[in-house]
Design brief:
The protein has 162 residues and is an alpha/beta fold. The chain is built from 6 helices and 5 strands, in the order βααβαβαβαβα. A 5-stranded parallel beta sheet has the order 3-2-1-4-5, sandwiched between helices. Helix 3 links the parallel strand 2 and strand 3. Helix 4 packs parallel to helix 5. The termini are far apart. The model has no long low-confidence stretch (mean pLDDT 90).
Length: 162
Amino acid sequence: MTRNSRPVAVFDLDNTLSGTAHRQHFLEGRPRDWEGFFAAAPQDPPLAQGVALCLEAAEECEIVYLTGRPERCCEDTVAWLTAQELPQGRIHMRRNSDFRPARHTKLEILLRLGRDREIRMLVDDDELVCDAAAQAGFRVVRARWAAASEALKDAQEKEGRT
């Protein structure tokens, strides 16, 4: 198989390109309000450091978005990316019925993308995703520019929802 000559830069969305602090409260109660959490995503503010890194990477790389958001959020996600004037790119989302931890679902997609393309970098805020990707040999940029949310971390790992 011939490798495409243009490398890929892979970007997470939540707490990497978009700020989720305004919707964290949906995850703090029991049961968690996932519908409310995802419904509020179109109001996410852009995170300047993540956006700047994405625009810079787009100069040399094809941009691919890799998110734990469920597929049902695709239309809102595309609209948000367009509104922020971020580069067009494929968006890989979690199947609506897939509740595996993000470190498994995202690594699976990275490995698939890396079969015939150079992955220049993965930019993600989830430390477990970053650890798994680094262990698999990918260059990782840890997005530490948004305030970490314990409720979101717990949800990502235990409930596989984002």
